[in-house]
Amino acid sequence: MDDLMALRTEAEQWLRTKGTDQWSDPETGARAIEKWRSAIDEGRAWVVVDETDRVLATVSRGPVDRDFWTDADQPESALYLYKLIVARHAGGRRLGERVIDWMSRLAALEGRTWVRIDTWRTNDELQAYYEQLDFQHVRTESPSHRRSGWLAQRLAGHVTAPDWPLSVGPKSAPLHPR
Hints:
It is a single chain. This protein is α+β, with helices and mostly antiparallel strands. It has 4 helices and 6 strands; from the N terminus they run ααβββαβαββ. The protein has helices spanning 2-17, 26-41, 95-109, 124-132, and strands spanning 45-49, 55-62, 78-86, 114-120, 136-140, 148-155. It has a 6-stranded mixed β-sheet. A hairpin with a 7-residue loop joins strand 5 and strand 6 (148-155). It is globular and about 45 Å long.
């Protein structure tokens, strides 16, 4: 838990240098951290570690967020990806992309059609990143009590780094392609 909270704090600081207050907004921050702690406690959060077990990245899955996705979206058809964070020292390894590919494969194995995300409505840079990874913008929702609401999805099973998969197990495989 301490490693993951440190990773989140680092991400908050880095996001501020990008001109966004995503994840550090005092109105939503405490609630978001509590939801994330629940995901960790319930085994819905994973980590990517190096050969020394240093945490490089994390991702969580969660239930459909009913502030955004409706029955018309067929919520059961998707895996919902949350809290993708990559340590700054691990940049340049395409870990975000590779973690998304891993989640995409998981979604396909579960028989789902989509991997879905939501990001802050004002974080254009993050939205562009996801679009580069073949997420398609679905719509933007603006509930008054939320800052997130840019909704996107990509087909389950679709991968953008097929020659560089992440390994799953007690010890991770090398982080470099063979």
